Amino acid sequence: MVNFDYCTPTRLVFGKGVIEKLPAIMSPLGKKILLVYGGGSIKKTGLYDKVLELLSDFEIFELSGVEPNPKYESVVEGAKICRENNVDAVLAVGGGSVLDCSKSIAAGAKYDGDPWDLITYKVPTTSALPIVDIMTLSATGSEYDANSVISRMDLNIKTCLKSDHIFPTCSILDPTYTFTVSKRQTAAGAADAISHVFEKYFTSPTTDLNDGMCEAVIKSIMKNVKVALENPCDYDARAELMVDCALACNNIIALGNGASGWVAHAIEHALSAYYDITHGEGLAIITPHWMRKILSEKTADRFVKYGVNIWGIDPGLDSFEIANKAIDKTYEFFRSLGIPMTLGEVGIDDAKINEMANDIAGDGKLKNCYAPLSVEDVAEILRNSL
Ligand code: NZQ
Ligand code: ZN
Predict the structure, then answer these.
(1) Residues lying with their CB under 5 A of ligand 2, a single-atom ion
(2) What is the Å distance from ligand 1's center to 97 Cα?
């Protein structure tokens, strides 16, 4: 078990109707609020009107049109609105993209220069406006972590600002707001959250406690995503998915585990940076090929545990047979959710594989991971995913 220093200062307010607490949650933070949202789903569902009604005593500024894989331009625009109007707090209403954008806005609002300096760690983030979110999609876990993933398509960079200053002050989690999420985004969100657990589970050392928690989260997502796809308004399934996703990206289920290097995510972020694909779909496509590539004498024990405990594979079989069956089942599971399982199906061909592999693993970037990969290894994973 390795040393850790853990703190998640975010208050989670969960359940049907908890939005009524919004005015009380926002009041201590100030009167001037930047409301950030995406392409309009919150207007269709009525959530936008509800928020404005509840915050009628506040002065509301708005930033709309935040795209999936949030773009840097929205961060600049939001930070400018905050600075020009002395905004007190940022309220994100939407999915992970809206919240991630809001986090970088909150940091950028407190910095006089270009927010890109903060996102790329040229300048340390030393403060941020308070952030509150109302989540409408279960996926990223941004509601319970300190990450803000921002894309610059002009540079083919999708990168993550991680700072204790951008933990949300409060996350409002009402599962009923996720009833309208499409089948496609529901499946992609589940794949993303499962991948967050894989990034914690396929490493060394781990503990019995962490393995058990990780396996429980994976099983819960696998079961409940099927129910939610069948019946999008099943409250209990949506509720469990919402909590699963919040926990999956938080280190609470992996305290004391060794770092893995988050390799599947490193690969997917390059795919999104070049092709703007849906994050969870990119992960589902890459994951079985990444698993196959890292399967070795060193890693086989992890795959055996995964195969036996998640998939019920006979523990008496040869360890590599268990591992390969488990990887096959992982692929079949993602496919059964309706996820496109080849890069070709999401519009990616082999044209930029070498360039992306170099961005991902060049300069030995993945050499200190649990299962180190070279540029050639990553290019092979990408080619196998075509
Ligand atoms: O923009 P609107 O109109 O709101 O529509 C969104 C968007 O088109 C829609 N949607 C959201 N809630 C809905 C809904 N549609 C109907 N009903 C609802 N209730 O869903 C679409 C996708 O939304 P998005 O926010 O992009 O999805 P997600 O939550 O999966 O976020 C993905 C982003 O988060 C990053 C990803 O890389 C990607 O940029 N990640 C953030 C992480 C973090 N902060 O810790 C970790 C992850 O590994 C990930 O990298
Ligand atoms: Zn992810």
Answers:
(1) 192
(2) 5
pTM of the model: 0.98
Q: Is 137 in the pocket of ligand 1 (CB under 6 A)?
A: yes
C-alpha of residue 57 to centroid of ligand 2, in Å? 36
> Is 63 in contact with 105 (CB distance < 8 Å)?
yes
Mind listing the pLDDT tens digit of every residue in the chain (386 residues)? 999 999 999 999 999 999 999 999 999 999 999 999 999 999 999 999 999 999 999 999 999 999 999 999 999 999 999 999 999 999 999 999 999 999 999 999 999 999 999 999 999 999 999 999 999 999 999 999 999 999 999 999 999 999 999 999 999 999 999 999 999 999 999 999 999 999 999 999 999 999 999 999 999 999 999 999 999 999 999 999 999 999 999 999 999 999 999 999 999 999 999 999 999 999 999 999 999 999 999 999 999 999 999 999 999 999 999 999 999 999 999 999 999 999 999 999 999 999 999 999 999 999 999 999 999 999 999 999 99
For a substitution probing ligand 1, which of 104, 140, 163 has the most ligand atoms within 8 Å of its CB? 140
Helix pair angle (183-201, 235-248), 10° resolution: 40
Question: Distance between CA atoms of 98 and 113, rounded to whole angstroms?
Answer: 22
Alpha-helical regions (H) of the chain: 22-26, 41-44, 47-54, 72-85, 96-108, 115-119, 183-201, 208-230, 235-248, 263-275, 279-294, 300-311, 319-336, 353-361, 375-384
Q: Which residues contact 242 (CB under 8 A, 6 or more apart)?
A: 14, 135, 138, 173, 175, 178
